[in-house]
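Risk register update: the risk of archive-format incompatibility is retired. Evidence:
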Amino acid sequence: MPAVYRTETAPVPVAAPPRKERSRYFDFLRAAALVRVFLYHMFPFAWLSMVFPSMGVMFALGGTLMATSMRRSVEQAITGRLRRLLPALWAMAILVVPVMLLLPWPDRPHWTHLGLWVLPVVEPPSASWASPIEGVLWYLVAYLWLVLLSPLLHRLYRMIGLVAAALPIAGVFVFDYYDWPLPMRVESAMTDVLTFAGCWILGFAHNAGVLRKIRWAVLLPIAAVLVGAGLWWTVTHPGEEGIDLANEPVAYAVYSAGFVLLLFRINPRMAWLERVRPLNGLVNFCNARAVTIYLWHNAAIDLVFVAAEHYELDRFGDTVELAGLFVATLALVAIFVALLGWVEDVAARRPVSLLPWGKVPASRPRKETPEWCGPVWF
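Archived output:
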C-alpha cells in the first residue's frame, strides 16, 4: 500500500501582507515633478530646474517604493517595477521603430541594436527626426539599472547607513572629472545612474523611517550646504548652453540630495488635497499615467512647435503664440494618453480607464499559493 502523507490541518491560503496606505504627499510630489519636466521641456528656462529638481525627486520616490516592495519579495519587487515600466516603452517602440525603418535613416545601426527598445540597458538608437522621443529615454535606462541594483544598494545602505547616499555623488564627481574610453551611450547611462543613485538610497532611508528621526537643527544645515554647493558648482561650471543645473551631473546630484532631504523630512498628510477637486484630479491623472505622459510629452511639444513654425503662428504675437502652443500641446498629450495610457493599467493589473481623473485604483493583489503539503490518498 502506498505511503499516505497527511498534515495535521488542511492547508490554509497564506494572506498577503497588508498594503501600506497610499501617500497623497508622494502622489503630489510625483505630479509636481512631472509638471515641472513638461514645463522645462516646453519653456527651457534654467531656473525651472533649480526651483524643483524633478528627476532627483522622482528617483527618491522610486527608491522608497522599491524598498517597500522588497520587504515582501526581492524578486517580485524587481519584476513588478519592470512590469510597470517597460510595457509603455514597448508600445512606443511598436509605433516608432517601424516608421524609423521605413523612412530614411542614414546612420541606421545593426538590427540587433534595436533590441534596446525591448530592454533599454542604454539609450535605444533612433533616427534624427525621432530625437525628441529618444531624448527622454535616459530616465528609463537609469531607472532600470537602479531597480536591478537595488538589492546591492539596499544591502550597502543597511551596512553604512546614509553614508551610502554620498558614495554615488563622489562617484559621479570622479566619473565626470576624467575622460573614460567608453561608448557615449554607456558613459551617459553610468553618469545618470551615479547622479541619481544617492536620491534612490535616500528613498530607502525614508522608507526605513530614518529621515524622520533626524532633528531639524541637524538636517537643515546639511540640506542648505548641499543645495548651496549644487548652486555654486552650477554657476562656476557653466556648460555649452550656459548656466543650467540640469546639464551639470555633479551639481544636480548634490542639489537634488539636499532638496530630497527637505521634502522627505516634511512629509505632511495632505488631507486638504481631496477638497481641491481640480488639483486632486490632476494629481490622480499624473500618477495613473506618469510613464505615458513622460514618454510622449516631448514628442507632443516638438510636433506642436513644428506645426506652429509651418503655419507661422508668430504673426499673431508672442503671447497668443505661446498660449496657443501650450494649449495645443496639452491637448496632444491628452490624445496620447487616451490612446496609449491603458497600457499602464494593464501593466499595473488594475481596471482600464480612458482618462483617469478619479482615485488611482490599487493593483489587483497577487494570489498566494499555499505551501505544498504532499499528496493525500484516501
